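Appendix B. Extra example for self-study. Work through it before the problem class; the solution is given directly after the inputs so you can check yourself.
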Amino acid sequence: MNNFEFQNPTKILFGKGQIEKLSKEVPKESNVLLLYGGGSIKKNGIYDQVMSALSEHKVMEFGGIPPNPEYSVLMEALQVIKKENIDFLLAVGGGSLIDGTKFLSAAAYFEGKDPWDLLTKGRAVTKGIPFGTVLTLPATGSEMNSGLVITREETKEKLSTGGPALFPQFSILDPEVVKSIPQRQLANGVADAYMHVMEQYMTYPMGGLLQDRLAESILQTLIEVAPAIMKDPADYNAAANFMWSCTMALNGLINKGVPEDWAVHMMGHELTALYGIDHARTLAILAPSHYRFNFETKKAKLAQYAERVWNVTKGTEEEKATTAIVKTEEFFHTLDIKTKLSEYTDDYAATAGTVSQRFTKRRWTKLGENQSLKPDDVAKIIEMSY
Amino acid sequence: MNNFEFQNPTKILFGKGQIEKLSKEVPKESNVLLLYGGGSIKKNGIYDQVMSALSEHKVMEFGGIPPNPEYSVLMEALQVIKKENIDFLLAVGGGSLIDGTKFLSAAAYFEGKDPWDLLTKGRAVTKGIPFGTVLTLPATGSEMNSGLVITREETKEKLSTGGPALFPQFSILDPEVVKSIPQRQLANGVADAYMHVMEQYMTYPMGGLLQDRLAESILQTLIEVAPAIMKDPADYNAAANFMWSCTMALNGLINKGVPEDWAVHMMGHELTALYGIDHARTLAILAPSHYRFNFETKKAKLAQYAERVWNVTKGTEEEKATTAIVKTEEFFHTLDIKTKLSEYTDDYAATAGTVSQRFTKRRWTKLGENQSLKPDDVAKIIEMSY
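Solution. Structure tokens for the complete assembly:
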């Protein structure tokens, strides 16, 4: 096991009726900016619950932040924050909206010329406006971590940053929101959380015995509840386990002391930036090819995953590992998620080249848990995903 | 799943060589009181590492705090804290020492006459002197929670309290300390952590699917590493998994949203208070009888535990549940821990009556996850443990 540091100060308020606790969790004297997306919170009643809880607070609003939070829109929100002396942000939405809020938290204190530098200079963010979240879409785990991903349409880029200042003060997780989420986004949420675990788990066995079992626990729970929530998103208990699994999948716990991969995410972000494919679906497209391409270095862990998560008891290590990849693909298919790039776009032929060139330009030449994947390898993995 | 709130702000520094980070983690301008126990830290080199890291801090010492932190000794330490204007406590030791430090943190701000009231009045502690820990004995999880248990020889009592002010600011967990721990205390640590998980897990299935799997992960890891650390405590990777499992067993995560029992602990504390039996061993004495006495309400979960943790695949639910209790007893025996009270003392005949009378006096009349156990039931469970 490797050395590690772990600290996660976010307060989680989980369950039915928790939104009313906003009245106590948001500091009384603050100038609050409520941030939200396309307006679904006005249809499903969450907006009303939030405003009711904050009836004695001073609240301004900024709606219309799109999925894959767009830089230019966030820049408009930043002007509001500065002009209105906002000192508390409340994100009501999914992971994209929370990521956008984190970016604004950091950008408000950024002293350079262009806040985009926060994403390109690679420095940890140590100062930000305090913020809380009300999660409306279980998936990304952003509600209990300090990372963020931002998209910029102008350059078709999608980049990430984070830092200790960017943990939410609190996050409210009410599983009752799940019943109003469309099937497609539920499927994305399951796949996204699943792949978050896989990025931290599917490397090689190195003695993180507890970490492995914790990761497997989340995978098993997602596999167990996925059919139930896809069939009936109003199944509260299935929704609750789904929601808590998504949070636990990326709250900084299961990766402590063990190697991580994240190459699938780095490649996947490009497919979203280039073609607008849902984030979770880009991961489902790339993961099987990634595991096949890196079979030799990952086969021991793939076999462990086959045994413990998919109950594959027979066969050699290679056979189990191969079965594990197929099982993973089949799981995505049960969610009605397609796993080939050509099933999403006809314009895929240049993708491998485009992405590998971008990685070369950014000097992303050491991907994966062994830092062994070069842009040429990235091109091959993407080609295998066509 | 039940509603819950979760927040754990403690910073964990885990691994080899982490003790030197004390120089940064302990605030520079503070008046530090270093608290320790019987002096083993002076033999195993930890004291020297700590003092070296704090060479530029102002540090006073208070050693000699005994296992099962004794109230009268803590009262002496409290005088030092007040007299010397101590404003940061550093606990270097095991769970008892950390519990004692938490009590001092709270007692320093206690405004009533007798700090013992902190333990008898049942109020959450919301104000305390900040403190950090260097853990030398994996077992109790106190290094990453806000609870404490204190013993008072004068009245032969052992009582608990806690509160949001009593999370350590940081805890340093260096698995290399494990190699200098005597076999008996290693066994106690494994059994203690195991029973912490069991108290939060061995109730009834109620849909906490992820929580169940997380709990089972810790049990499986403890079962996996116990033989390795008992054979060779210098096995760093086994020690690291043991140490992290003990912390994760009681850091407030696995009990979120699910019912808890804790009756074994409440009874066990009395056996320690009456006979001085090691805490972990009191749990091993009582747990099997507790599960047998409550077989009807616990059998579904016992069967799940049999299947998932002990790989018992055959038999009826009752048979699996019965086997699970035997497996648990056998696990304690592999640690050379005896599971009958009569194996620890000849003077046991009055125990059941004494403990049930104490519980009646304290109005502890609703123990267990169903709040159904009365003092008469407690007497029967203890008799079954003779």
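Self-check: Residues 11-176 of chain A form a domain with the Rossmann fold fold (CATH 3.40.50.1970). If your reasoning did not lead you there, revisit section 3.
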